[in-house]
Design goal:
It contains 11 helices and 14 strands. The chain has about 425 residues and is of the alpha/beta class. Helix 4 crosses helix 5. The protein is globular, with a radius of gyration of 22 Å.
Amino acid sequence: MKKNLLIIFLIYISVNAYTQTNSNIIKVVKSKTVNQILPGACQLQEYLPLLKDKRVAVFANQTSLIGNTHLVDTLKKLGINITKIFGPEHGFRGNADAGETVKTYTDKETGISVISLYGSKLKPAPADLADVDILLFDIQDVGVRFYTFISSLQYFIESAIQNNLPLLILDRPNPNGFYVDGPALDSSYASFVGMQPVPIVYGMTIGEYAKMLLGEKWIPWKYESKQDENISLSELLGFQKESGNFKLTVIKCKNYTHNSRYILPVKPSPNLAEMNSVYWYPSTCFFEGTVMSEGRGTDHPFQIFGHPLLPDTLFSFTPQSNAGATDPKLKDRLCYGWNLTDENNDGSIQLKWLLQAYRLFPDKEHFFLQPKKFNAKPQDYFFNKLAGSSELMQQIINGKTEEEIKKSWQPKLNAFKMIRKKYLLYPDFTQQH
């Protein structure tokens, strides 16, 4: 016991030293003061008792840090029995390309089996959880609907419910959590890049989003007990019965609000290596659903985008194979387009470059990536999966202005904002978005 207390104390000292000296420290600037934000993983005293003497399965990646030490390494040093690691898109160590298949393997650093929950397998199988008493989720999200970690979160919650296991979420701040914007998803367009009727930027942390999934009954759940299926959210979050052991516990961040400008200490995925890419991602990821390069294979993905057929008077760049994109779109071809590396996002989704690109593109019939299916439906277009419906594509084709398009989003945005407020764990932003 004394040994464990000593280790906790040393980790506490390490975390605080890190937050004072590291140049990439997670900070929030507010009223000319600097308040250090500590993710839920740093609140060891709050969740270690929940893991003691338990067999733990961890869903994590390279962002799952306590200071500059990985969560898994920290827990192992504290004597926590981790029997399984699950990894999302880009893998447990975060170095796989977008969409790349990652197979089950043994992690060299820890000796623990790592099971990928991306691709053909999206949730743990019952056999994967045979030696597990509690599930733990700790991944840095960027607060954008088509960033697939919230889809992985949903499947992980479903697995916890179906296997009657408690779930512990170590919350992390949302770098895009200071506004809400974009078209809401039509449920008939649900896919792994968008599973629920939320806008593209939903302004919630992972913990808040998990509460919403349960509270809005967007995750189907039913216990083998006489418990009323209309159980309240507060009852669900504390539910403990011999026939249903699912319980959601969220360990909150410290010093975070939805006015915070959270600076990521480590890149959440290979092509979001800069904060400016994280801020522009909700606006420029639409280009992934077109023939345009979205900047993969450059030093500034999602800040640089274009195509060889656009006017050569625009900014020029050439996508090349690199560690984060071994085979990028338009590889080794000179492209013309835009460079947003010196532009700041004002806290909204901006469509002006998408609209300009469509107007300037000479072959409009092939601007949007075509589905490979014969007699494809609107739901088969990747652009529509990103947007959440076919409406935005049609508005672009019809020549609608950005103002007209954004005005059409407002009814569903307003409805979502009312839902969102019910599940917030932190003070909301004061600005009206």
